[in-house]
Predict the 3D structure of the following.
Amino acid sequence: MADRRSILISIRQKYVECIINGEKRAEIRRIFPDGVSRVYVYVPTPKRHVIGFFEVKEVHRLPIAQLWEQAGRISALSQDYFFAYLSGKEVGASIHFDEFTVLPHSIPLAELRRHFPKFHPPQSFMYVSEDMETLLLK
């Protein structure tokens, strides 16, 4: 696990459903760190749990209009929402992936906090420690 970096991001349930059914193959972010190979997904509502992960295929950082042309149709976002979400940014990121792995047992917020008392679901992203990754993959 030391040779790669994993992060945890929050994605709304309706977009996670689009990921699972294959409609969404790019996640759009205002910021995205370098060197990330795996992204775990936390669903904030209604279930409040980590549901699965994807391996990062590629990341593109582009001016917003170019980003829409490059990744808009595989992001499952409406054009209006896309541009509103990235409003005020000159450059955004699209994180591309092929497959999403649903964990055999999702990890609820209460369990995350039992193991990591200071855990708070990320607003943007958080790095996943080795201990947390071990729990997620149990």
